[in-house]
């Protein structure tokens, strides 16, 4: 049996046009040994963040938290019901530095199988099925771990059709990722989402990546350590003027407790409170329509697939 084209949310598959305004890359729950003391674990804080996003018109949040990093999959459906915000969960694997050696050793030889099971059967015993696969590259390079995880992601994609979302370290390595996923491993570019391109505002690389047909995510605004916010509208404008406005996505990428709006940070609401109106104002005549597409139409096309199975 094959379902109609739909986005797989934690509450079930929904038509792409029902996503509403979408935060295409964020985290409700996340815990890494690389961020001690800043884990996203609080259910009340996650609920408050979603409610604040919804108050500004937000309709869907895509959580890129992958395997082993505190996804709290069973807690996602209640949060979606309570706040009215749709949530998409992820399977996949982050960079090796985020895991203990024993965790990675336990996945050897079965990584693609784990991804497929979480996409089609559910994450752990939660019954919540993932809607995308998240993997990661390195700084200007792809190490053996990245190649292993991306190979497994490609295998899972070919089995399920699920999109693959890629963390680009500081926004670098986009073309290497496309060479591997789309060249060597045969994943259609339209099924690949490249994340963090705002962190490396190289307009030439952006255009080359967009020309492949993949989706480009500008996510994690307002981070002082990246200092590239002011260049993002120019990058979006350049891509739109080059005919790639239908490939663009925007996300908040909240990864620490201090960054949440409920703790005094920008959080999820910042995306709609500041980024959306700034883009609409700075992009001239194309601004309002482009912003509408980036927040509503493009995420649906990036995430919707023909899911097989019941």
From TrEMBL:
<dbReference type="InterPro" id="IPR001559">
    <property type="entry name" value="Phosphotriesterase"/>
</dbReference>
<dbReference type="Pfam" id="PF02126">
    <property type="entry name" value="PTE"/>
</dbReference>
<keyword id="KW-0378">Hydrolase</keyword>
<dbReference type="InterPro" id="IPR032466">
    <property type="entry name" value="Metal_Hydrolase"/>
</dbReference>
<feature type="modified residue" description="N6-carboxylysine">
    <location>
        <position position="134"/>
    </location>
</feature>
<comment type="similarity">
    <text>Belongs to the metallo-dependent hydrolases superfamily. Phosphotriesterase family.</text>
</comment>
<keyword id="KW-0479">Metal-binding</keyword>
<protein>
    <submittedName>
        <fullName>Phosphotriesterase</fullName>
    </submittedName>
</protein>
């Amino acid at each position: 049996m094959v379902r109609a084209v739909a986005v797989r949310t934690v509450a079930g598959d929904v038509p792409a046009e029902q996503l509403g305004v979408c935060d295409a890359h964020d985290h409700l729950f996340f815990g890494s040994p690389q961020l001690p003391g800043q884990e996203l674990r609080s259910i009340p804080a996650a609920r408050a963040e979603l409610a604040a996003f919804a108050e500004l018109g937000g309709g869907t949040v895509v959580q890129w938290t992958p395997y082993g990093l505190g996804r709290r999959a069973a807690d996602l459906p209640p949060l979606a019901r309570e706040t009215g915000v749709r949530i998409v969960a992820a399977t996949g694997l982050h960079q090796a530095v985020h895991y203990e050696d024993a965790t990675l050793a336990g996945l050897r030889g079965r990584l693609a199988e784990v991804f497929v099971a979480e996409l089609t059967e559910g994450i752990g015993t939660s019954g919540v099925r993932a809607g995308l696969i998240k993997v990661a590259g390195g700084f200007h390079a792809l190490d053996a771990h990245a190649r292993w995880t991306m190979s497994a992601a490609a295998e899972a994609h070919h089995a399920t059709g699920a999109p693959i979302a890629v963390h680009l370290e500081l926004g670098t390595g986009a073309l290497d990722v496309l060479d591997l996923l789309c060249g060597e491993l045969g994943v259609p570019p339209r099924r690949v989402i490249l994340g963090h391109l705002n962190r490396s505002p190289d307009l030439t690389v952006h255009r080359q990546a967009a020309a492949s047909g993949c989706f480009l995510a500008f996510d994690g605004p307002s981070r002082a350590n990246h200092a590239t916010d002011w260049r993002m509208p120019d990058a979006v404008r350049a891509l739109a003027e080059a005919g790639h406005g239908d490939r663009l996505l925007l996300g908040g990428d909240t990864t620490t407790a201090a960054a949440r709006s409920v703790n005094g940070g920008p959080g999820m609401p910042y995306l709609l409170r500041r980024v959306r109106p700034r883009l609409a104002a700075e992009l001239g005549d194309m601004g309002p329509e482009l912003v509408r597409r980036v927040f509503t139409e493009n995420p649906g096309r990036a995430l919707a697939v023909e899911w097989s199975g019941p």
